[in-house]
Amino acid sequence: MNIQQLLKRDSFIELTARSRARALLDTGSMRELIGPFDRMISPWLAMQGVVTQSDDGVVVAKGTFDGQPYLVLAIEGAFQGGSLGEVGGAKIAGALELAAEDNRNGIPTGAVILFETGGVRLQEANLGLAAIADIHSAIVDLRRYQPVIGISAGTVGCFGGMSIAAALCSYVVVTQDARIGLNGPAVIEQEAGIAEYDARDRPFIWSFTGGEQRHRTGLADAYIEDDSALMRDTVRAFIQRGLPVKERSDRYPEFLAALAEVDASVQATPEAVRAIYQKGLSL
Description:
Elements: H1 3-8, H2 17-24, E1 31-33, E2 58-65, E3 68-75, H3 86-104, E4 110-114, H4 125-142, E5 148-152, E6 158-159, H5 161-168, E7 171-175, E8 180-181, H6 185-192, H7 202-209, H8 211-216, E9 222-224, H9 228-241, H10 252-259, H11 270-282
Parallel strand pairs: 3-4, 4-5, 5-7, 6-8, 7-9
Antiparallel strand pairs: 1-2, 2-3
């Protein structure tokens, strides 16, 4: 991207969760379900002296995309690192379940999920894990009818149980600033040691879990510049493509076969990781 393109771009990453949802849906079509004025706050954070947010950091936007009914579920990474607890998780799961029910009733409702999340909220532990499990189930249900499109733009990334949710999506879109991984860098360093994974080494981290690497390994379907119009065009292309011939998560036997050949005693490299996943995709 040259300087002129940079000046003209409308950054998607710099938008709030609510603004990202509005940028994706048809102009003027967005209405928010269980929004901030409904005061659906987490009952658990205040007990632990944590300041709550009136929408619990999750935006559920209903509207249209090119005239078709669509949901955009956006996680606000600026609140508690985008972590999910009981309320925020229930909002996402419930909206996805209602979208699937719409499809069974002849209303072709699709969904886009904006992942800016570290995963489960530690203060809510098992309640958050249960909510994320409900999200997984709801994605698998809805994707039988309409593509479920996941987006990880930046800057928080997508980690923990919500990285599994992203993997269950029909299509995944990433930018250069995106990161997707089951465990965050600090967790890996804590458990395996700094010699194995230095959480302060940003180039090293992005070389393994960054958007470009995830796209090159086949775990993301589009790798794009940070631009709101381009993001909308990319979502449109996947909607028009329709359901995948085979969901990526249904190819787990091939990936497991490729992973079984990995020598864990040897320090992994980005190139080796790409080779492993590409082999899994080719089986």
